[in-house]
Amino acid sequence: MVEIKEGKHIFGIAKVGARGQIVIPKEAREMFDIKAGDSLLVVGDEEKGLAIVKADLMKNFALKILEGVGYVTEKFGVKKKGENR
Q1: pTM (predicted TM-score)
Q2: How far is it, in rounded angstroms, from Cα 42 to Cα 78?
């Protein structure tokens, strides 16, 4: 592993197998607490490439967004879908 900037790392090269699988380098799995059976979200940007994120982190992020939407709805009286005020 090479730290290219504080908090930014290059873990090496992963080859894609015949079934499309890759092996995440051990140092990366340890640093990001990725264990066998964990669900990972793979997202992509056609210009910037791929990113892999632990699914539970994205779930927590989505819940925070939804909590914020609920706050805005309550605070500013925005109607919820199907609600008459």
Answers
A1: 0.65
A2: 33
